[in-house]
Design goal:
about 300 residues; 7-stranded mixed β-sheet; 5-stranded mixed β-sheet; 10 helices; 14 strands; globular
């Protein structure tokens, strides 16, 4: 049996078309692998493509070896492209942000099965925040009113959902009381703030780690106005209509991966502080669902 791995990056609607292509090794892979032998694995664009590509190349190779299937990994340029790809049956597996997962579960049959872990092998968490730059004159969240603010993506948990919640907690309507822009990614919103193109922005703990590694962040570069409670990190989800036997085998393969093959810095980027992937359940994201209700967010309109 021969296993293969192919990595590609795609944007918007082009992602769906690209996912329809097959790996050259498909015909020689295990017969119980879906999609003619190729497992298509989508990744949300939570960091730059240049940063994510080498990490997921390694992760995809490890999974292909364990699973006995070709693994084809794609990084989308927006969150909804990945969700649409799974809804259209073009992805078997996806790593979604928590809010993206809740939407993918609702419309694309996504089922959370695993996630990255802490050093003691517990599901990891991260946090979101509202920040400004030193000297902006903004001292409290309420003072963001009327000022420019950078979100990342509408379907982002820490880049939209939690920042909107933080604004509302301070009495601001995120749809009316600020001059909001959607930068498209956490990196882009951070760069907009760093270059003082906006007065305030979202910033999560994972982007801080990435920016620190790039040399573009150090303590004191931003002023924290609000931080969220811990948020469960991204789940790895399988499309729910796949055969139960394959889903069981996929879980076993994911939980059996040895992440020591990844560089320690790369593990931090993906939110893994342990050497193994751990189980995760759909119920872990019920807090996200409650927040969606609190904010009256219409997931179907995202």
């Amino acid at each position: 049996m021969k296993q293969g791995f192919v990595f590609a990056s795609a944007a918007g609607a082009a992602l769906v078309a690209l996912l329809a292509t097959s790996s050259p090794a498909v015909a020689e892979t295990a017969k119980d692998c879906p999609n003619g032998g190729t497992v298509r694995f989508g990744v949300e664009p939570y960091d730059t493509s240049a940063r994510l590509v080498p990490i997921y190349e390694k992760l995809g190779k490890l999974l292909a070896e364990k699973l006995g299937c070709d693994v084809k990994v794609f990084v989308a340029t927006n969150y909804n492209a990945e969700i649409e790809a799974m809804r259209n049956g073009k992805l078997e597996v996806g790593q979604f942000g928590p809010l993206g997962y809740v939407l993918a579960h609702q419309v694309a049959k996504a089922e959370a099965i695993a996630t990255f872990a802490t050093a003691d092998n517990k599901p990891n968490t991260y946090w979101a925040s509202l920040v400004t730059w030193p000297g902006s004159g903004i001292k409290t969240v309420a003072e963001i009113k009327g000022r420019s603010f950078a979100f990342s993506d509408p379907a982002s948990t820490s880049g939209h959902l939690f920042p909107a919640y933080g604004l509302r907690k301070a009495g601001l309507d995120p749809d009316k009381d600020i001059r909001a822009i959607y930068a498209g990614s956490h990196t882009a919103s951070f760069e907009a703030l760093r270059n003082r193109k906006v007065d305030a922005a979202e910033l999560n703990s994972e982007q801080i780690e990435s920016a620190t590694q790039r040399g573009s962040y150090k303590d004191g570069d931003v002023v924290f106005l609000w931080k969220s409670d811990p948020i469960p990190v991204d789940p790895i989800a399988v499309r729910g209509d796949l055969p139960a036997a394959f889903k069981k085998r996929l879980v076993e393969a994911l939980l059996g991966l040895d992440l020591s093959h990844l560089d320690p810095a790369d593990r931090k980027i993906i939110g893994s502080f342990g050497l193994h992937i751990v189980p995760q359940t759909d119920a872990a994201y019920n807090g996200i669902r409650d927040l969606v209700k609190t904010l009256n967010i219409n997931l179907a309109a995202m």
